[in-house]
């Protein structure tokens, strides 16, 4: 059965039908998830279809599987191994990461010289050498331009850090039908019902057109007001879908509540229920929270040394916040529960090397006073961005400080008890109106620091979310100093001449 899917995929590749090839290789991987040939073929299909971020991880899987079988792999597997390394490097090129791509090509060359792999013929080796030289030159130019631009009072074009490239994703994979399912009438009715529940009918889902800087406006879901709203009005409240926290305090890994080692008189505290797996350090409120976490994400992460993994990634990339990494790991675990391959620590290391950016998950920080604490709120994530936001998220009903000198007010205690009786998490987020909002107006949060000037806001949005803002505030700030900066694409993508004149 697997061979048939491989043959079907190969036939689709010949016909340049890369999407069908991806589907056939995926069906084969569902049967034999540790077949490096299928992973290699699917990586090639992704690369040709224009999805280098997927090709990168599939190629990485080829390398991992071949490394695990290093002692027994034969000549044919050596060929697959080299193809995996080559496609890994080519994926980095397509993602606009010239330094990392040059390093990946250098690894191929050095291994070829030391092991004399039969899998790489003369033409392949020549191509690899040429690519390494070309990318090394591009990287030197990039570093030179970074230094020059950094010394200027006003930048003339936008450039990222050395290992952060520009890659625009169109928001949908051809084989992924979830975006279409999301806007089906039944799904929209369900979302609207949830919005009605949390906002008492104040909000309405709608399709919104956004100026994206070109002739074709972007259309996507947004949230508009169903009623006139006054400044400081409470618009909606939502409990988090997923939370993360540091380990300085004992908390439930699922619902976030403070825990106690032993039962106490404090009704705000809950007794610790440790994970039944003795090698796992996570704790929960009770068996119910444990089961909910296990069904959502915990099975994949259970027993793994998450702290060691976090420390490793932060050493490699000191700019990555721990709360982002923890959220990414849980989200990755949720995705892995639906995939054909188990979670792999090496894969996570490489995933986080390229896909973690500050505030990248649409999840407001729950408590600024508690480090490494964050959450994802799915309904709040429906709100679109505007640099001049008309609503903001606030967090009420935080846990009362544990202190011998401060007692919890009775009205606060009663409110907390009522909310808990109806299943509300104590870390719910409340959306408040910043100013008066008319019926039919769209409601906006801000995805960047609103105190920044336009140039700094656009840098933050582009690097973290991959888009530039064309809101009224940004349009009004169209001065020479704050105009939208062009990108010198030739510093990222070999052969792309866009923006080359900016370097002169």
Automatic annotation (TrEMBL):
SUPFAM superfamilies, per this entry? SET domain (SSF82199), TPR-like (SSF48452)
* Record-level Gene Ontology MF annotations: histone H4K20 methyltransferase activity
User: Which residue ranges traverse the bilayer?
Assistant: none
Q: Supply the InterPro entries for this chain.
A: SET_dom, SET_dom_sf, TPR-like_helical_dom_sf
Assigned keywords, A-Z: Methyltransferase, S-adenosyl-L-methionine, Transferase
Q: Which residues form the SET domain?
A: 201-448
UniProt keyword S-adenosyl-L-methionine, yes or no = yes
- Catalytic activity field: L-lysyl-[histone] + S-adenosyl-L-methionine = N(6)-methyl-L-lysyl-[histone] + S-adenosyl-L-homocysteine + H(+)
Q: Does the keyword Transmembrane helix apply?
A: no
* Gene Ontology BP, a term: negative regulation of gene expression, epigenetic
Protein name in the entry? Histone-lysine N-methyltransferase SET5
* Species of the source: Funneliformis geosporum
């Amino acid at each position: 059965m697997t061979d048939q899917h491989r043959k079907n995929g190969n036939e689709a590749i010949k016909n340049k039908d890369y999407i069908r090839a991806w589907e056939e290789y995926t069906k084969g991987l569902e049967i034999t998830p540790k077949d490096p040939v299928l992973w290699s073929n699917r990586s090639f299909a992704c690369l040709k279809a224009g999805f280098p971020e997927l090709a990168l991880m599939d190629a990485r899987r080829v390398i991992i599987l071949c490394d695990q079988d290093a002692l027994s792999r034969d000549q044919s597997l050596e060929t697959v191994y080299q193809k995996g390394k080559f496609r890994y490097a080519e994926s980095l090129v397509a993602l606009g990461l010239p330094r990392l791509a040059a390093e990946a090509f250098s690894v191929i060359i050095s291994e070829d010289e030391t092991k004399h792999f039969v899998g790489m013929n003369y033409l392949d080796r020549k191509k690899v050498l040429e690519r390494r030289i070309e990318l090394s030159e591009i990287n030197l130019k990039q570093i030179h331009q970074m230094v020059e631009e950094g010394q200027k009072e006003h930048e003339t074009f936008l450039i990222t850090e050395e290992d952060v490239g520009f890659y625009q994703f169109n928001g949908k994979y051809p084989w992924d039908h979830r975006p279409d399912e999301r806007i089906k009438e039944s799904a929209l009715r369900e979302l609207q019902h949830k919005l009605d529940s949390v906002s008492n009918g104040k909000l309405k889902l709608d399709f919104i057109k956004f100026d994206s800087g070109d002739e074709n406006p972007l259309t996507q879901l947004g949230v508009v007001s169903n009623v006139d709203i006054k400044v400081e009005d409470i618009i909606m409240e939502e409990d988090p879908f997923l939370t993360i926290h540091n380990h300085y305090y004992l908390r439930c890994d699922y619902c976030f509540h403070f825990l106690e080692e032993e039962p106490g008189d404090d009704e705000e505290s809950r007794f610790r229920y440790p994970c039944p797996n003795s090698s796992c350090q996570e704790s929960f409120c009770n068996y119910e929270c444990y089961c909910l976490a296990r069904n959502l994400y915990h099975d994949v992460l259970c027993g793994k040394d998450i702290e060691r993994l976090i420390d490793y990634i932060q050493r490699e990339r000191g700019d990555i916040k721990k709360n982002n990494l923890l959220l990414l790991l849980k989200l990755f675990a949720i995705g892995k529960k639906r995939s054909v391959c188990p979670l792999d620590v090496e894969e996570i290391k490489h995933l986080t090397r390229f896909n973690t950016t500050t505030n990248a998950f649409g999840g407001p920080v729950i408590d600024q006073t508690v480090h490494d604490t964050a959450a994802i709120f799915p309904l709040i994530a429906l709100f679109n961005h505007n640099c001049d936001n008309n609503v903001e998220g606030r967090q009420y009903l935080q846990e009362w400080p544990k202190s011998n000198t401060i007692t919890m007010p009775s009205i606060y205690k009663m409110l907390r008890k009522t909310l808990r009786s109806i299943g509300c998490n104590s870390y719910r987020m409340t959306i408040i109106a910043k100013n008066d909002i008319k019926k039919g107006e769209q409601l906006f949060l801000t995805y960047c620091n609103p105190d920044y000037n336009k140039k700094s806001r656009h840098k933050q949005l582009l690097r973290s979310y991959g888009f530039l803002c064309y809101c009224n505030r940004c349009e009004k700030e169209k001065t020479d100093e704050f105009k939208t900066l062009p990108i010198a694409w030739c510093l990222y993508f070999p052969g792309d001449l866009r923006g080359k004149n900016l370097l002169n």
